[in-house]
């Protein structure tokens, strides 16, 4: 004789997604001005190369090139946009 015990269906345990929305929004808000500062440094380095301004603050190394600052600015802005889209995905107020 086989006895089967049937349990009722309990509450569903779901994965709570997007727990870090506020942190993502905060970080994206901070990365946008950082990207603007990196862009300003890239422009300053280009102007220093063309002798339009005084010498650049960083005379040697990786960050003495305008390409590094421009790449950093683009990367920071892309990350800020991705974080912003992650945080705002699914909000009824944004649509």
Structure characterization notes:
This protein is an all-alpha fold. It has one domain. Helices cover 55% and strands 0% of the residues. It has 2 helices and no strands. The chain has helices spanning 21-49, 66-88. α1 runs antiparallel to α2.
Which stretches are poorly predicted, pLDDT < 50 over at least 5 residues? Answer: none
Provide the succession of SSEs: HH
How many domains would you count in the coordinates?
1
How many individual β-strands? 0
Our measurement of the CA-to-CA distance between the termini, rounded to an integer number of angstroms, reads: 60 Å
Number of helices: 2
Which structural class best describes the helix and strand composition?
A: mainly alpha
Cα Rg:
25 Å
Oligomer type:
single chain
Approximate strand percentage? under 5%
Overall, the morphology is rod-shaped
Largest sheet: none
Helicity, as a percent range = 40-55%
What is the gist of this entry?
The chain has helices spanning 21-49, 66-88.
Q: Which terms summarize this structure?
A:
95 residues, mainly alpha
Helix and strand layout, with pairings?
Layout: H1 21-49, H2 66-88
């Amino acid at each position: 004789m086989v006895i089967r015990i049937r349990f009722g269906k309990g509450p569903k345990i779901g994965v709570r997604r997007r727990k870090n929305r506020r942190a993502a929004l905060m970080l994206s808000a901070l990365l946008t001005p950082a990207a603007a500062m990196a862009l300003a440094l890239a422009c300053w380095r280009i102007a220093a190369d063309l002798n339009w301004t005084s010498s650049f603050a960083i005379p040697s190394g990786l960050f003495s090139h305008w390409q590094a600052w421009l790449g950093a600015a683009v990367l920071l802005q892309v990350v800020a946009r991705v974080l912003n889209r992650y945080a705002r995905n699914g909000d009824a107020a944004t649509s």
